[in-house]
Amino acid sequence: MKKAQSMGLAIISAIGIFIIGFMFLNFLMPEITQFRTSMSCASPDDITDGAKVLCLVTDATVPYFILLVLSISIGAITSKVVFG
Q1: How far out from the chain centre does Cα 21 lie?
Q2: Element (H, E) at 8
Q3: Is a pLDDT exceeding 80 seen at residue 83?
Q4: How far apart are CA 13 and CA 66, in angstroms?
Q5: DSSP result, 10-79
Q6: Residue 64 has what pLDDT?
Q7: Higher pLDDT residue, 35 or 48?
């Protein structure tokens, strides 16, 4: 397989990984919302310090997941450039 064909395949597979990752994020969002409501993260005056940390970690889940999907997609493309 030539390098140009390999690059096209890497881009298509990276787009597929990107789409599947964001589809999985749609399944993750209701669970995060349910956790935030059960921990009452909206009213931080009533919760303990440990619960505040859990709320902060839960709030950071979505951006970290988006960064994970982006890095895997970019890694799929660059692996074909470097090693392909």
Answers
A1: 7
A2: helix 3-38
A3: no
A4: 17
A5: HHHHHHHHHHHHHHHHHHHHHHHHHHHHHTTTT-TTSS-HHHHHHHHHHHTHHHHHHHHHHHHHHHHHHH
A6: 92
A7: 35
What the block records as the tokens of 36 is 């935030």
Asked whether the whole model's pTM tops 0.90, one would answer no
Residues 6+ apart with CB under 8 A from 22: 69
Query: Does residue 15 register a pLDDT over 80?
Result: yes
- Name the burial class of residue 27, with classes exposed (0-12), middle (13-18) and buried (19+) by CB atoms within 10 angstroms of its CB: exposed
Look up residue 75 and give its two tokens.
């890694």
Does the pLDDT of residue 4 top 70, yes or no? no
User: What is the rounded CA–CA span in Å between residue 13 and residue 38?
Assistant: 38
Residues 6+ apart with CB under 8 A from 40: 46, 47
Joined tokens for residue 66: 């988006």
